C-alpha cells in the first residue's frame, strides 16, 4: 500500500512538472561516427510530437554526468525530446578536429548521425526546432551545430571561448565564423576561467569575440533584447568562491562531476541552468 502510494505520488508530481507532456520516459540509443559507435541517453514525453534538445559535455567528461543529465531533465520537463550525446571527448583539438566531431553528431544528411537518430524518434518533430547546449569543447560543438543541420535554432554555451590556452579557435568560434546567427547564441563564462587567460579582462575579451557584442571594458553582462549575448560570473556568485572554467561544479574542474553548484542548478539567477534553458525554449514551437 505504501509503495503504491509513493509510486502514485511520484507520477502525480512528474505529471505536474511536465504539464501537457504528461509523462516522460528514459531512453538510450547509439549513433555512428565513422567506424565508432557512441551512446545517446535521454528522456522524452510519452506521446505527441516535440522539439529536440541536445547536450554535449566537455573534454574527458562522462557524457551523462550531473550537468548533462540535469539539463536533459529540465528540458524533458518542458516538453522536449532531450538527450546527452557521447563523443570522443578524450582530447581537445583545433577547430577542424572538433568540428569533425560536431559533424558526426549533427549531420542531417546521414541517417546514422545523432541528430537523425533523435529526430526519427516517435515523439520527436525536429521541424518544431532543435536547440543545443554544451560545456567547453561541448560548447564548441553546440555553437557550430547549425553548420550541419539548419533545424538548429539556438545554442547555450558554458566555458565558451575563442582561445583555450594554446588552441586559437577564431576560425570557428568568433561571431560570423559559425553558421548560427550570433543573436541566437548565449554564452556564460566565469571571470576566473584560466583557458582564455584567467582574468576578468581576458574572459571578457573572449566572450565579446564569441558573442559578437561589446558593452565596455567593465561589463560583466552584455545581452541583446532577445537575451542573446554573454554573461560573466563573478567569483563571489558561486558557492566555492571561484568562477573558474567549471563554475557549475563544486570544487571547479577538479571537483566531482556528480556535484553541481546549487545556484547554477536550481537558482533563478540569469547565469544559472534554468534561466538559460528557458531562453532556449523560446526558440521552438510546442
Write the layout of secondary structure elements.
Elements: H1 2-18, E1 24-33, E2 36-45, E3 52-56, H2 66-77, E4 81-85, H3 95-106, H4 114-119, E5 130-135, H5 137-143, E6 152-158, E7 163-164, E8 167-168, H6 170-173, E9 185-190, H7 200-211, E10 221-223, E11 229-233, H8 262-266, H9 273-281
Parallel strand pairs: 3-4, 3-5, 5-6, 6-9, 9-11
Antiparallel strand pairs: 1-2, 2-4, 7-8, 10-11
Helix pairs in contact: 3-5
Structure description:
The protein is an alpha/beta fold and 286 residues long. The protein is 29% helix and 21% strand. The protein contains 9 helices and 11 strands. It has a 9-stranded mixed sheet with strand order 1-2-4-3-5-6-9-11-10, with helices on both faces. A two-stranded antiparallel ribbon has the order 7-8. Helix 2 (66-77) links the parallel strand 3 (52-56) and strand 4 (81-85). The chain starts with a helix and ends in a 5-residue tail after the last helix. The model is unreliable at 1-21 (pLDDT under 50).
